[in-house]
Design goal:
seven-stranded mixed sheet; 3 helices; 27% strand
Length: 220
């Protein structure tokens, strides 16, 4: 009956005409004291919520994003996203089946400010969950993504070439065949590296669960 630890995906989409769509996904479990053990909200659950509770969840999502995420442009240009939140399932897909997991997807559509040459994000220290950095440019989902823990900053995406300004970090792990992966590389050699990624994520989940158990029961 375990539940995957929620994260906060951030998806940026840059179009040829300078349009910029930013989406952030917030699981309602993020609002609980311990998101790691909280139950997911399903479409069936959502149907029972009164209007005031639905509105409260959207308000909580707005405030939560302000605490855990910062958008950074280079050169520095102030950015204050005004996200409009809707109830969806993951990847901004429509809720269909009663058992579909509910998340709040916030969308902000704007234009890239004149003079902005780079885009990145920060996972603010106040957060407790990882932030996942995805980018799409000119209709193509970019291969490289990055998982940020609280206090970490993403690589800078060049807004002229739509490529990272810095290379991926050195190889840090390998599977039994000798193939290795980087901590924020994705898309290359996926079939061989996916088991390693899954194993690493499982290890992180186990560590976080143990820390949570220790904090609730110091004698454990």
């Amino acid at each position: 009956m375990a539940h995957p630890i929620p994260d906060v995906p951030v998806r940026a989409d840059f179009a040829q005409d300078g349009s910029w769509t930013l989406q952030v996904e917030v699981d309602p479990r993020c609002f609980e004291d311990d998101p790691n053990v909280a139950l997911s909200v399903t479409k069936a659950d959502l149907a029972t919520f009164p209007p005031e509770r639905l509105q409260k969840l959207k308000t909580q999502a707005v405030e939560y994003v302000k605490k855990v995420l910062e958008i950074v442009l280079d050169p520095p240009i102030p950015v204050s996203p005004a996200f409009e939140f809707e109830f969806t399932t993951h990847e901004n897909a429509a809720l269909k089946a009663p058992e579909d997991v509910v998340v709040l997807t916030g969308t902000w559509k704007t234009k890239v400010p004149q003079g902005a040459a780079g885009y990145s994000i920060k996972a603010l220290p106040e957060g407790t969950l990882s932030v996942v950095y995805h980018n799409t440019a000119l209709g193509k989902k970019l291969d490289r993504m990055q998982i940020l823990f609280p206090g970490e900053e993403s690589f800078v995406l060049d807004l002229k070439t739509y490529t990272p300004r810095t290379p991926a970090p050195p190889i840090i792990m390998a599977d039994g065949s000798g193939d290795a992966i980087c901590v924020d590389c994705y898309g290359a050699n996926t079939q061989q590296t996916l088991p390693v990624v899954v194993g690493a994520v499982a290890l992180v989940m186990l560590i976080l669960w143990w820390k949570g158990r220790r904090s609730r029961n110091p004698a454990a």
